[in-house]
Amino acid sequence: MPNDTNPDARAPSAPSHSRTRPVDAVFSRPQLHWVGDGFRVAGYMNVVPNAARRLSPFLLLDYHPPYFYEAITRARGVGVHPHRGFETVTIAWEGRVAHHDSTGAGGIIGPGDVQWMRAASGILHKEFHEAAWAKEGGTMHMAQLWVNLPRSEKMGPPSYQPLSAGDMGLVTLADDAGVVRIIAGEFAGVRGPARTATRVNLFDAQLRAGGRVTFTIPPKDNIAALVMRGAVLVNGVARAGLDTLVLFENAGDTIVIEAAEDSHVLLMGGEPIDEPIFQHGPFVMTTREEIVQAYEDFHSGKFGFLAN
Ligand code: MN
Questions:
Q1: Which terminus of the chain has a lower count of CB atoms within 10 Å, N or C?
Q2: What was the pLDDT predicted at 134?
Q3: How far is 278 from 102, CA to CA, in rounded Å?
Q4: CA 147 to chain centre
């Protein structure tokens, strides 16, 4: 006799191995604030309750919506500062950011590029609007995510992955629905170029009005979607408008995103890192003692040197 509490019995048309991941909440864009004098961002981690757990391995999600900067000749951005214990991931869609760090690495993050910097045991860096671009002025559209490292990797060597627009995985969706760029993780059998310490999925989806895409994300992994342009319908039920962040429950595995108009969505998620987080400013460790040590090491010059 069939058991009517069996979900498969209630939904015979759905494949038995797949179930929708319910939407937990849709958050509006928080207040914009300035990082240095060059980046006008919305910090979405601040509006998600229990974000450190619900969005792990992400520690920070600063989104810079498109904003026009007038031409200027002085440097605009953030001067030399340290990081330890995690990675900074800078994604550019419009505008150009110049970067230099104390390992001697540096470069320009332009449209379509991503910089994946592992601070690990310690790095000094600076982030400015690229000088030639700033002289002309223009629209900047970017995001910076901080990705936690597991305790075992926090004191490893710093490193740097400059990922160019042409390096990204690319999936063209059926029915002219749009394109998904894979920065990290795997979608539809295509892997993104980023090497990560733990499983991270970072998908950049451009959808045409009416276009639809299905992602399969295991329930253990946290996942959220940021609507950067347009408006979408999630799983056929939840409307998510411009600049909203959609947070999914840790249940089910299938996410269906349908564009109500031409849309641009960033999906970010990964395997949670189930370790304590002690954060103070630019240092993210697992104990208070490690934070004290980070300040001692920074002040005694162990992070190296970088000129202003
Ligand atoms: Mn930084």
A1: N
A2: 97
A3: 24
A4: 8
Nearest to 224 by CA among 97, 61, 111: 61
> Cα(10) to centroid of ligand 1, in Å?
50
pLDDT in tens, 54-77: 999 999 999 999 999 999 999 999
Least confident of 3-7, 39-43, 272-276: 3-7
The Å distance, Cα 80 to ligand 1 centre, comes to 8
As a whole number of angstroms, the distance between CA 59 and CA 86 comes to 9
Residue 220: burial class (beta carbons within 10 Å; 0-12, 13-18, 19+): exposed
Q: pLDDT per residue over 13-34, tens digit each?
A: 444 567 999 999 999 999 999 9
pLDDT for residue 137: 97
How far apart, in Å, are the Cα atoms of 278 and each of 46, 48, 135, 176?
A: 16, 18, 40, 46
CA of residue 194 to ligand 1 center, whole Å: 19
CA of 90 to the centre of ligand 1 (A): 9
Distance CA 90, CA 6 (A): 44
- Ligand 1 mean position to 101 CA, how many Å? 10
pLDDT of residue 150: 98
Mean pLDDT of 189-200: 98
Q: Which of the four pLDDT bands, split at 50, 70 and 90, describes residue 10?
A: very low
What separation in Å is there between the alpha carbon of 223 and the centre of ligand 1? 24
CA of 86 to the centre of ligand 1 (A): 11
- For 256-280, what is the mean pLDDT? 98
Give 81 Cα–ligand 1 centroid separation in angstroms. 6
**Cα(254) to centroid(ligand 1), Å:** 34
- CA torsion angle 35 38 41 43 (round to 10): -20
